[in-house]
Write a structure and sequence with these properties.
The protein has a domain of 30 residues. With 87 residues, the chain is an all-alpha fold. It has two helices and no strands. 1% of the residues are buried. The protein is 59% helix and 0% strand.
Length: 87
């Protein structure tokens, strides 16, 4: 069963930036198969994968920032209680 096309943010027309990519053997065929299953071009499939990766990376960075902030708050609480010998 073929999945419906997913809309991309922005378009990739003649004015879009271009980047030549070397792929390991077999990867082109895998991407072509995935693109066909998702009802989009190989270019759109690669862009969708890159967008997912970038969004996930951004989310992970935000989580690490939140963890750092929470650790600072915990340290401040322990410091204010005079509990410096914790591990």
């Amino acid at each position: 069963m073929q999945r419906p096309k997913q809309k991309m943010q922005g378009s990739t027309g003649r004015d879009s930036e271009k980047f030549i990519l070397r792929m390991p053997a077999g990867m082109r065929d895998r991407i072509a198969k995935m693109a066909a299953q998702n009802g989009r071009s190989m270019n759109s499939e690669i862009i969708a994968a890159l967008e997912k990766y970038v969004e996930a990376t951004d989310s992970i960075s935000l989580l690490w920032d939140a963890i750092d902030e929470l650790q600072k708050q915990i340290d401040d609480i322990h410091e204010s209680r005079g509990d410096l010998n914790r591990d």
